[in-house]
Write a structure and sequence with these properties.
single chain; mainly alpha
Length: 88
């Protein structure tokens, strides 16, 4: 096993990761992504602020959740119905 020569930097990086809030970092990354997409679509900052605040404050919109890929796919099991009557 190799031990890095800059162990102080490694320890500092580990301490930084332990003290950081992953949920807050995720929300910050989503906001940065929203800014990039808004810029590509030619939206103003006021439009972006309106949309992001509506997604947080609107009673219906705040219940919407994106379907992120990390949740995995739901595979529908295959049932072979070729033998016999399916509705019997």
């Amino acid at each position: 096993m190799q031990v890095p020569s800059n162990i102080d930097a490694v320890v500092a990086a580990i301490d930084l990761m332990r003290s950081a809030d992953p949920a807050l970092q995720f929300q910050d990354c989503l906001l940065e992504l929203d800014k990039v997409v808004a810029h590509l679509l030619g939206m103003s900052d006021a439009d972006l602020n309106y949309i992001t605040s509506a997604m947080v404050n609107d009673g219906f919109l705040k219940q919407l959740r994106p379907s992120f890929e990390h949740r995995g796919l739901r595979v529908q099991p295959y049932a072979d119905q070729s033998q016999g009557d399916r509705y019997a």
